[in-house]
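Known limitations

Structure tokens in this collection are predictions and should be treated as such. Users comparing against experimental data should check residue numbering before alignment. To illustrate the layout, the record for Large ribosomal subunit protein uL24 is reproduced below. The input appears on top and the generated tokens appear beneath it.
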Amino acid sequence: MKPFGHRKQAAPQSHFHIKRGDEVAIVSGTQKGKTGKVLRVLRKENRVVIEGINLVKKATRPTQENPQGGFSEREGPVAISNVMLLADYQKRSRRSAKASKTKEGSQA
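Generated tokens:
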């Protein structure tokens, strides 16, 4: 029996449609619709880090520069399957408003 929490490692993709510096939009998830610039591409994990998206709090130890320590916010990785180039995202068709009925009752 496998230990609890064991996950299969995803095979890295051979080709990535997103590169560092690209403007991208989040297609699905809690951050859906937000846009940002790609800071890093994590090829082995099939994930990308996007500026201002998926902010996580990281505990920092006290140092000479920051004697109190505390928490700092930084960007966390997002699955590359949830990301689309901004130009393609703006081009894709959207569902129009529900078809309105005419006076006769048939759909327009």
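For this record: The first strand starts at residue 23 and ends at 26. The mean pLDDT is 83. Please report discrepancies through the issue tracker.
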